[in-house]
Amino acid sequence: WRSRKRKGSLRKRKQWYQRRVRADTSGVEKTRRFMLEWLSFLYRYIPVGVLEVLPQKINERPPYYHGRDETETLMCSGNCEDWVKLTEILLGKVPDDYNFIPKHVANSYTVSSVASTGS
């Protein structure tokens, strides 16, 4: 039930933003950018029922957990590519040359940067 509620909030955000921009290609890409920036903050918030230790401290990174379904697992991921997959579910396929770099790079990572640092 709760994972559907979180997916519903994504759909509501998408609908809200698309009402304010055109439905053409540039409008969809603005909506995608808005959603990706929003997801870069949203992934840090974990449903209380999933947390092992309460209360979570503000300066701690969220612990890894596996969501109740695939979409929720993508929502909790700190990987930018997973956020792009989420926007593909809601807005359709991204252009081949699309590259998302979050404004707050310290709070996210890409698979290639982890592989190159050996972490």
- Report the helical percentage: 40-55%
Major sheet characteristics: none
Task: Give the N-to-C terminal Cα separation.
Answer: 35 Å
Number of helices: 5
Query: Any low-confidence stretches, pLDDT <50, length ≥5?
Result: 107-111, 113-119
Pairing-aware structural class of the strands and helices?
Answer: mainly alpha
Rough shape?
elongated
In round numbers, the mean pLDDT is: 76
Radius of gyration: 15 Å
Strand composition percent: under 5%
What does this structure look like?
- It is built from five helices and no strands.
- The longest helix has 19 residues, at 2-20.
- It has helices spanning 2-20, 25-42, 70-76, 80-91, 111-117.
- The protein is mostly helical and 119 residues long.
- The chain is elongated, with a radius of gyration of 15 Å.
- Helix content is 53%, strand content 0%.
- Helix 1 packs across helix 2 and helix 2 (25-42) packs across helix 4 (80-91).
